[in-house]
Design goal:
Order of helices and strands of chain A: EEEEEEEEEE
Helix content of chain A: under 10%
Largest interface: A-B, 26 and 22 residues
Oligomer: heterodimer
Number of strands of chain A: 10
Strand content of chain B: 35-45%
Strand content of chain A: over 45%
Radius of gyration of chain B: 13 Å
Helix content of chain B: under 10%
Number of helices of chain A: 0
Largest sheet of chain B: 6 strands, mixed
């Protein structure tokens, strides 16, 4: 079956613009995670959705970052007023148990 | 504080040589430890889970609670093992919210 998909695969935006990144998890997976992958920084946890519970937003770096998950499926990560330090690969993963299945990522470049 | 440390950013070994990727963690409870791998132009994927005590692609990892380590080992490295390896810690049973290390890039030289 289809794995986790993310769109767009690449996004170049000007500093100060808002961006939306999309994640389509594997059907039936109740948990969905967003991470940021930066050179030398590894994988930084951003936010976690589990079923209908309130999301764990403890990893969001600032209030410019937000995410939602509609209908327990698709998720959108929004970054407002982008800054150059937001440039990174944003990874989404979904799971129904211990193993997380990752998407291909969205490479965000803020110029 | 909960933390995963991978001290080596880059590890280069020759084909056929043993390889050990180091991972140390900081957590006061009973953690679950994982190794994830990302091959070139592929997605990040699970390699090993400590509870399974399996050998995957010749790799093994033993959880040492005394040393708070979960090092990844393979006796004879192959060129196809070249990849980025991440150690991850799950601290809360049932949620599997991971703390990842910064990763180690393994290069296996011919």
């Amino acid at each position: 079956g289809a794995g986790v998909s993310q769109s767009p695969s690449n996004k170049v935006t000007e500093k100060g613009k808002d961006v939306e990144l999309r994640c389509d998890p594997i059907s039936g997976h109740t948990a969905l995670y967003w991470y940021r992958q930066s050179l030398g920084q590894g994988l930084e946890f951003l936010i976690y959705f589990q079923g209908n519970s309130a999301p764990d937003k403890s990893g969001l770096p600032s209030d410019r970052f937000s995410a939602e998950r509609t209908g327990g499926s698709v998720s959108t990560l929004t970054i407002q007023r982008t800054q150059q330090e937001d440039s990174a690969v944003y990874l989404c993963a979904s799971s129904h148990a211990y193993e997380q299945y990752f998407g291909p990522g969205t490479r965000l470049t803020v110029t | 504080a909960q933390r995963v440390t991978q001290p080596e950013k880059l590890l280069s070994v020759f084909k056929g040589a043993p390889v050990e990727l180091k991972c140390n963690y900081s957590y006061s409870g009973s953690p679950e430890l994982f190794w994830y791998v990302q091959y070139s132009r592929q997605r990040l994927q699970l390699l090993l889970r400590h509870i399974s005590r399996e050998s995957i692609k010749g790799f093994t990892a033993d959880l040492n609670k005394g040393e708070t380590s979960f090092h990844l080992k393979k006796p004879f490295a192959q060129e196809e093992d070249s990849a980025m390896y991440y150690c991850a810690l799950s601290t809360t049973s049932g949620t599997y919210k991971y703390i990842f290390g910064t990763g180690t890039r393994l290069k296996v030289l011919a």
